[in-house]
Write a structure and sequence with these properties.
alpha+beta
Length: 324
């Protein structure tokens, strides 16, 4: 974590950690400024450009976060203090040097509060440029945690988890409303169908061969092979494939639940039909069983924004645990 995350916010400034449930919409950040001029000026522009960046590989561009602004006096209201993502700017000429503070679960849970204090706008912008990626990642992680926490025990589908345990030796925080369409010792298709959208989770495995298994071309080839065979379209002869004619999939190496993984974000389409949408997947190695595992989430929601649905799928996928 970036070195400027140097400590906890002073106890004289804010109260002890509260266990109240946090509030706010999915993919939303509350930005606190000293005044509206800061929000309308260079400070607001830099924040909107960072936290409001476009989510990768969606059919129609959508922003990662919706950003709401309030002034510092409004933060005293409980409704704002309980927001799950809070970013505070404090510009004060009496401050000698710019510094950054961060804290989790300060006024509610789960919650991330990040504060930059600086003597002037120039010093703020320098500090923000240095920490913006880490701040962005903290808010993304908190979004996933909040969605997963919302699936408390009574809202998790334990029947699905028992099947995942029995067939694939893993568990996942899948909410009620999903059902198992297919499952065996190497793959599973779990789905939720509503009038508004279709949410789907794929799990597929193979014996781990070498690091070549993480090659992007191999990842796409394996997904196409699975969906061509097991994910039929609505008409005879139709099936799902990765759609890469206009927008290429994006691949990223990362630490996924303390395992090396390749994240893939892309679009899918149905051959011989007009359906399509976004997908996200994580490919990693189950070392105990020497197998390569891909967990994949895709959605079909022709009349809805996709960013919120992708974030929900992302949270479900990150909740996976491979059993000993």
């Amino acid at each position: 974590m970036f070195i400027l995350f140097i400590g906890l916010i002073s106890c004289n400034e804010i109260s002890e950690v509260s266990q109240q449930s946090s509030t706010g919409g999915v993919n939303e950040i509350l930005v606190v400024t000293n005044n509206v001029q800061q929000w309308d000026g260079e400070i607001g522009d830099s924040i909107r450009n960072n936290f409001g960046r476009i989510m990768e590989v969606l059919p129609i561009p959508e922003r990662q976060f919706k950003i709401a602004n309030i002034n510092e006096s409004s933060l005293q209201k409980k409704i704002f203090k309980k927001h799950h993502n809070i970013f505070i700017i404090d510009i004060d000429p009496n401050i000698k040097d710019a510094f950054v503070e961060s804290r989790k679960n300060l006024w509610a849970k789960p919650q991330v509060v990040i504060k930059i204090s600086a003597p002037n706008i120039h010093e703020f912008l320098i500090s923000f440029e240095e920490l913006r990626e880490n701040a962005f990642d903290l808010f993304i992680e908190n979004e996933r945690q909040r969605i997963e926490d919302s699936y408390s025990k009574k809202f998790k589908d334990q029947k699905i988890n028992r099947k995942l345990n029995s067939f694939l030796h893993m568990q996942m925080a899948i909410p009620k409303g999903f059902s198992v369409s297919k499952i065996d010792s190497t793959k599973a298709w779990i789905r939720r169908e509503t009038a508004a959208n279709s949410m789907n989770i794929l799990i597929y495995t193979k014996s781990y061969s070498s690091t070549d298994d993480f090659n992007p071309n191999e990842i796409i080839k394996r997904r196409n092979s699975l969906t061509r065979t097991y994910i039929p379209g609505p008409t005879t002869g139709s099936y799902q494939l990765v759609s890469d004619e206009y927008i290429q999939p994006v691949f990223k190496e990362l630490s996924f639940n303390e395992m090396f993984a390749v994240e893939t974000r892309g679009l899918w389409r149905v051959e011989n039909d007009f359906m399509g949408g976004p997908f996200i997947s994580y490919t990693f190695v189950d070392e105990a069983r020497k197998r390569l595992v891909t967990i994949d989430g895709f959605t079909y929601a022709p009349k809805q924004n996709k960013a919120v649905l992708v974030r929900e799928l992302e949270a479900i996928l990150w909740s996976v645990s491979v059993l000993p």
